[in-house]
Amino acid sequence: MSAAAETEDLDRLTDDDFRLVVRNFIAANYPPELRNAPRRLHYKDTKGWYRTLARKGWLCPNWPKQFGGMGISASKQLIMLEEKERHGCARLNEMGMTMLGPLLIKHGTKEQQDYYLPKILTGEHIWCQGYSEPNAGSDLASLRTEAVLDGDEWVVNGQKIWTSLAMDANWIFLLVRTDKTAKQQEGISFLLVPMDSPGITVRPIPNIDMGEEFCETFFDNVRVPKGNLVGRINQGWTMAKNLLSFERIGSGSPRQSSYALGRLKLLAERMGVWDDEVFQDRYTRLRLDLEDHKSLYQEFVDQVRRGEPLGPDVSMLKIFQTELFQRITETMLEISGENGGLFGPLEGNRELNPAGLFLQSRPATIYAGSNEIQRNILAKNVLELPSR
Predict the structure, then answer these.
(1) Annotated catalytic residue: which of 82, 133, 146, 247?
(2) Which residue, 8, 152, 193, 286, has most beta carbons within 10 Å?
């Protein structure tokens, strides 16, 4: 049966039956040595799984079928995420799948869609995101990396930072300033740039766990074809906000906290505190917070399923999930005793890595737009509070 025909059949399944199909496929095909990786893996590590999903036609469940995606409902997309997390699947190099692909489908030309989308599906193009800068992270509209049109090419100069897995990518999508005289949010454009372009330098930034996930990326007179601009000139901010809404519902998924709470239970049993009344009270509060968050998340999933655009209130998801993730991992560290100082998993159980999960939770409130910025968005656009 072809991948397209199989996807048609999946659409007809109930959510429970679909979950079983996904669970069985992951169990049979995901490399066991990559389960519950203690840190973010690189493309060389996950390439086999990436290609397995690509051959199955399951790489981009959120894309419409005519572009090579699964075109399945939002609830089924959530099920796929939940099952991957339940099994301990590593996060892929997903910028092309979850962010650039949906943007090109909505704003790209047919030529751009025909060229870039198939290469994401095959893994020929691995993308990274060029948004944040040293002085324009949370205040993204203040970015200074500029692109100046010179004949049929853009000339790009500037610096990006916290470019996740840039060392693995062969393409980057950039927000660049194309009009210095316009208001901050009105002079920004969206550009697609090959990473092997002369003038690009990538420097990895070691994390506190000595892994290398983030990078600095420098652009020194990098020349980019004029046709690599997506959408209209100086209208990149509008598209960037669309991408951030895609990212925000993803970063607001309860899967991180669900996984961490499961590990907290296992750790409490191992450390002999599971039956302690004080711990049970704390665990129950965390569990109830997670159930509340799942209900909120489902409301936004239902909104996506109905084809309704996500509003600024989606920022609540990112705030609640990431702060809950941190509270759970803080509790893990507190009951770990001397094991809390270990970077790796506990002896005898690869699924118990309290310090690793704790460190993963620290930047969660910063990436995808810091929680302080999310609260400002809610205050201004949802509660309509004054700026001063």
Answers:
(1) 247
(2) 193
